[in-house]
UniProtKB/TrEMBL annotation:
It comes from the Archaea. Gene3D superfamilies: 2.30.30.90. One of its GO terms (molecular function) is transition metal ion binding. This is Ferrous iron transport protein A. The lineage of its organism: Archaea, Methanobacteriati, Methanobacteriota, Methanomada group, Methanococci. Keywords: Iron. Residues 1-67 form the Ferrous iron transporter FeoA-like domain.
Length: 67
């Protein structure tokens, strides 16, 4: 399965998180939640989770499995 770090702009559903991290839960990134990737160029991934726009480092994004 692909991780968020592998995906381009689009709408994705979180399938699982492979490394528990309280930051994900604080941001609302939990299995079943929707993530809208706005930009996945160089640097952090810019995404929208709920009503919040976030910048997520690639190191953390590789732990978020999406479909």
């Amino acid at each position: 399965m692909d991780t968020l770090a592998d995906k381009g702009p689009g709408i994705y559903t979180v399938v699982k998180i492979t490394k528990p991290c309280s930051k994900f839960y604080q941001l609302g990134i939990v299995p079943g939640s929707k993530i809208i990737v706005i930009s996945n160029d160089r640097g952090p991934i810019i995404a929208r989770v709920g009503n919040c726009k976030i910048a997520l480092g690639r190191g953390l994004a590789k732990y978020i499995v999406v479909k």
